[in-house]
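Write out the 3D structure for:
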Amino acid sequence: MLRSIPFDHEGKKGEAERDMTRSRLTASIVIATRNRKEELRNTIASAVSQTIGAEVLIIDDGSTDGTSEMVCSEFPQVRFIRCEEARGYIARRNEGARLAAGDVVISIDDDAVFSTPHIIEETLRDFNLERVGAVAIPYIDVSTDTRLRQMAPDSESVYISNSYIGTAHAVRLDVFLRLGGYREHFVHQGEEEDYCIRMLNAGYVVRLGTADPIHHFESPKRDFSRRDFYGARNAVLFAWQNVPFPPLLVHLPATSIRCLLFTLRPNRFKTRLAGLIDGYIAILRRCWERRPVSVSVYLLHRKVKKAGRYCTLQEMERRLPILMRENRVAETETPVPLER
């Protein structure tokens, strides 16, 4: 574990509560990367500067730009895992979870930074309730606008969300592993909401964070055609694998139509159509076993999604399933082993 660096942050809760948080939970920061050496340098520098000593794992997904040399020479205190074969961020985040030593795994993209040194400390504090299985850490897409996303409206209540973004979230490691982590056949995009609805089915919620924001500098190297293709494809897979009958009969065709109408630009329309077709073919060819959540959980998930960031745990708690603890599994869900 990295050495804890003292930091005095005014306006936050007392030192006694900080000490209590430190004694209860530990953190691992997992950063999956591929060919973004310069951006990654800033990400790691912000991770090792956190006030709470956290294990930092870098999972290199087959980079060819000198990433391994840079990390090993400039950041010898982090754990660096070099993978020759590129398998994508979903698979590498699962791998990071298997290797993590902390109670909580924090995920940040290799083109983002922790804007202040106390984000991990504040995020661990947001896990103060057993129902909280994940925290959506506040973030700003700096290259796009100044809007603060995933931030709780106030600190008086516990606000919940239906999902989180991949570049700014934290999960309880024991719950993540017990539920099987991310489904790797999603390949790219959409794995977060799929995991979150399964987590909700086990009685755990996503809490909107109260920490200072992560700054996301969306890399110009991102492939937006992949986003269109897999966004449409994985919307189909999400519905097939998670939505129960009879809601599936409405959800699946409605999702397909929305994916096509998202943009009518010819090139993007064709890409999304190809993604939808691939999703339906994947269902027919692979015949992945359906593990739908209960109807009540599906409706709760929809309600939380429509409520945006103004849905509190208090108003929803009576509708939540009984918590899945240890090896006890909710009747409508079976664990999905982490895919290798």
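The chain has two domains: 24-216, 224-286.
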